[in-house]
Amino acid sequence: MTTIKTTCVRCGDVELGPDDIWLELDPSKNNGSYRFFCPSCESLQRRPANARIVSVLLATGVGYDVFSSDPITETEIDDFVVSLNTTEDWAKLLA
Fold first, then answer.
1. Tens-digit pLDDT string for the chain (95 aa)
2. pTM score, two decimals?
3. Domains identified in the chain, total number
4. Is 38 part of a structural domain of the chain?
5. Residue 27 included in any domain
């Protein structure tokens, strides 16, 4: 099993497995953050992950979510709903 070493702010160095860590990736950048629960104090930890850390964690099989730093606005949702109701060719909406 792969062992990943990181640091808890309370306990210091800790060792985790790939199933103990979760990546949060930003699709517009090469980085994100990762989170884990410390095996000693059980507190949730969050750390920044640059491109190198992301690459290493993905290679070890860590799970991930992709999130957008620019969320969809209410106006964009309303415009999309109007388009669904008024556009006959739905393929145009996907372009």
1. 789 999 999 999 999 999 999 999 988 778 899 999 999 999 999 999 999 999 999 999 999 998 876 777 888 888 888 877 776 666 666 65
2. 0.67
3. 1
4. yes
5. yes
